[in-house]
Amino acid sequence: MHSEFELIARYLAPAPAGDDRGVALGVGDDCALLAPTTGQRLAVSVDTSVADVHFPAEAPPSAIGHRALAVSLSDLAAMGARPRWCLMSLTLPEADDAWVAAFAQGFHGLCAKSGVALAGGDVTRGELAVGVTVMGEVAPERVLTRGGARPGDVLAVTGALGGGAGGLARWRAGARDLADPLLRRYLLPWPRLEAGQALCELAGAAIDLSDGLLADLGHLCAASGTGATLRPEALPLAEGLVEALGESDARRAAQSGGDDYELLVALPPASLEPARARLAALGLALTAIGEVTDEPGIAGSTVDGVAGWQHFSGDTP
Amino acid sequence: MHSEFELIARYLAPAPAGDDRGVALGVGDDCALLAPTTGQRLAVSVDTSVADVHFPAEAPPSAIGHRALAVSLSDLAAMGARPRWCLMSLTLPEADDAWVAAFAQGFHGLCAKSGVALAGGDVTRGELAVGVTVMGEVAPERVLTRGGARPGDVLAVTGALGGGAGGLARWRAGARDLADPLLRRYLLPWPRLEAGQALCELAGAAIDLSDGLLADLGHLCAASGTGATLRPEALPLAEGLVEALGESDARRAAQSGGDDYELLVALPPASLEPARARLAALGLALTAIGEVTDEPGIAGSTVDGVAGWQHFSGDTP
């Protein structure tokens, strides 16, 4: 059993101060001190992941650490921001060294891969939950918001859909091997940071897909004052999804399942091919799935009355 | 029963974009967009407050909202930073409109009084907890850290000590009236933001008192590579503390009780009177309580072997 301070010191290793990551003072004082880049906007977001609401409490701790950071970074991706720093709040029922070490390994691994510096955090006792605040930078003229879609724009998604819901279904069916592609999509999502930065000069609007395509498309349309027509048959399905769920449920998962963490963008038709080329260079597909319209509402969906995954609704892992 | 989105929209009212608070885009997109001041350091900190670990679950919701923000702002105070923005993560077991409305009133009230703009947040389901990320700004040459104490410096504290522990004792004894001064100190602490900014040109080091004087003095000494001599008889005691706990336990609470959220500073002897004058102008006392030494360890304490309040230690409200 270790004290809070020892846990923090051992596993929340600070980013070194004075290096090129803009951390003037890291974990261990009352605040971290950061040096933002002159002229850039600071994009900030926080997401809290609660055990057995957002992820299974029994998931591998390294995946819990990776995933908690990934879902926050996904918000930076949707704004076209470059990730710089994060803060992490870990609440856990007991001070279990091995668990925390594996958790930290997953968290720090994604920090390193995404170029984000852990600048601070706290460890408290309670029901297992992880809160991650991310901070990124973006030039004011390059910011991607939800509100810039225009009638006539093409709607397109990165990667493939339904993997979050499919992976959850696989978990519930007893799958535990992280080599399973769907389980990986659910437990080890990859934030589309490079894609967001590559698309921000071409797209008019973007949102990350956390609540499900239909719900998030609804948010984008509401912010833009538009409607949309969806072509469900065009949706790119995650690897193994049809095999796991069958064709009908796979299409349904792609439309209303949460936790995909792909980007949905609206862009002028002439920008679709240049955007595809940029993402191809990153090894990522971009698929046109519909159009922005001036008619309120979302037409074309084959899922009835589903507004996406919400908390408090009883739909938990 | 309201959906997550409705709760967020209704109670996490964003700071208006485009005003003088540096919020370019507020709550409701994937990220908030902030405009940091050129040349300033960004001071960031996060604190998570868990029900029945950090505060009583049955406390008035407006106090829970106030307190969760106050403990994070206290970290900015200790760095001498001016508060600018915050993000708030609320985890709660059910969507109770009246509770959330009162919570938000306490949170927004302190936002307004401290000049901090709520820039974003999330609402999730789970055991009651509140995570608050605060961001402030400070000129690089004015930063207060824990590491700048020098042998010969005077140790001084703002306000009065023991109120956090005394208020907790009053709560446990059944006190519920927030007119009780000790209960107010525990449930409605006031972050010493103006004091921190007023002291940063005079003090060499500072820390806020969250874990208890002895523990936090230990952190300050460790960061500064010094020791300290404490004069327990000099400690300023919170109003009503002796009456509530008796003389001996009151002195003990002032030394090892947590949750006071006063500032402990180390400053050259010649700076003590100017510092007192600055705080007097704010209506706040500054009391010399000991000296910084070059001898490792803390001498003079009348409390045996107490390293302050820690999580995982079983000492919960």
UniProtKB/TrEMBL annotation, chains A, B:
<feature type="binding site">
    <location>
        <begin position="121"/>
        <end position="122"/>
    </location>
    <ligand>
        <name>ATP</name>
    </ligand>
</feature>
<dbReference type="Pfam" id="PF02769">
    <property type="entry name" value="AIRS_C"/>
</dbReference>
<keyword id="KW-0784">Thiamine biosynthesis</keyword>
<feature type="binding site">
    <location>
        <position position="122"/>
    </location>
    <ligand>
        <name>Mg(2+) 1</name>
    </ligand>
</feature>
<feature type="binding site">
    <location>
        <position position="210"/>
    </location>
    <ligand>
        <name>ATP</name>
    </ligand>
</feature>
<feature type="binding site">
    <location>
        <position position="75"/>
    </location>
    <ligand>
        <name>Mg(2+) 4</name>
    </ligand>
</feature>
<protein>
    <recommendedName>
        <fullName>Thiamine-monophosphate kinase</fullName>
        <ecNumber>2.7.4.16</ecNumber>
    </recommendedName>
</protein>
<keyword id="KW-0547">Nucleotide-binding</keyword>
<feature type="binding site">
    <location>
        <position position="208"/>
    </location>
    <ligand>
        <name>Mg(2+) 3</name>
    </ligand>
</feature>
<feature type="domain" description="PurM-like C-terminal">
    <location>
        <begin position="150"/>
        <end position="298"/>
    </location>
</feature>
<keyword id="KW-0460">Magnesium</keyword>
<feature type="binding site">
    <location>
        <position position="47"/>
    </location>
    <ligand>
        <name>Mg(2+) 2</name>
    </ligand>
</feature>
<feature type="binding site">
    <location>
        <position position="75"/>
    </location>
    <ligand>
        <name>Mg(2+) 2</name>
    </ligand>
</feature>
<feature type="domain" description="PurM-like N-terminal">
    <location>
        <begin position="28"/>
        <end position="138"/>
    </location>
</feature>
<dbReference type="GO" id="GO:0009030">
    <property type="term" value="F:thiamine-phosphate kinase activity"/>
</dbReference>
<feature type="binding site">
    <location>
        <position position="259"/>
    </location>
    <ligand>
        <name>substrate</name>
    </ligand>
</feature>
<dbReference type="Pfam" id="PF00586">
    <property type="entry name" value="AIRS"/>
</dbReference>
<dbReference type="InterPro" id="IPR036921">
    <property type="entry name" value="PurM-like_N_sf"/>
</dbReference>
<dbReference type="InterPro" id="IPR006283">
    <property type="entry name" value="ThiL-like"/>
</dbReference>
<feature type="binding site">
    <location>
        <position position="47"/>
    </location>
    <ligand>
        <name>Mg(2+) 1</name>
    </ligand>
</feature>
<dbReference type="InterPro" id="IPR010918">
    <property type="entry name" value="PurM-like_C_dom"/>
</dbReference>
<comment type="pathway">
    <text>Cofactor biosynthesis; thiamine diphosphate biosynthesis; thiamine diphosphate from thiamine phosphate: step 1/1.</text>
</comment>
<dbReference type="InterPro" id="IPR016188">
    <property type="entry name" value="PurM-like_N"/>
</dbReference>
<feature type="binding site">
    <location>
        <position position="45"/>
    </location>
    <ligand>
        <name>Mg(2+) 4</name>
    </ligand>
</feature>
<keyword id="KW-0479">Metal-binding</keyword>
<feature type="binding site">
    <location>
        <position position="309"/>
    </location>
    <ligand>
        <name>substrate</name>
    </ligand>
</feature>
<keyword id="KW-0808">Transferase</keyword>
<feature type="binding site">
    <location>
        <position position="211"/>
    </location>
    <ligand>
        <name>Mg(2+) 5</name>
    </ligand>
</feature>
<feature type="binding site">
    <location>
        <position position="30"/>
    </location>
    <ligand>
        <name>Mg(2+) 4</name>
    </ligand>
</feature>
<comment type="similarity">
    <text>Belongs to the thiamine-monophosphate kinase family.</text>
</comment>
<feature type="binding site">
    <location>
        <position position="54"/>
    </location>
    <ligand>
        <name>substrate</name>
    </ligand>
</feature>
<feature type="binding site">
    <location>
        <position position="30"/>
    </location>
    <ligand>
        <name>Mg(2+) 3</name>
    </ligand>
</feature>
<feature type="binding site">
    <location>
        <position position="146"/>
    </location>
    <ligand>
        <name>ATP</name>
    </ligand>
</feature>
<dbReference type="InterPro" id="IPR036676">
    <property type="entry name" value="PurM-like_C_sf"/>
</dbReference>
<keyword id="KW-0418">Kinase</keyword>
<feature type="binding site">
    <location>
        <position position="75"/>
    </location>
    <ligand>
        <name>Mg(2+) 3</name>
    </ligand>
</feature>
<keyword id="KW-0067">ATP-binding</keyword>
<comment type="function">
    <text>Catalyzes the ATP-dependent phosphorylation of thiamine-monophosphate (TMP) to form thiamine-pyrophosphate (TPP), the active form of vitamin B1.</text>
</comment>
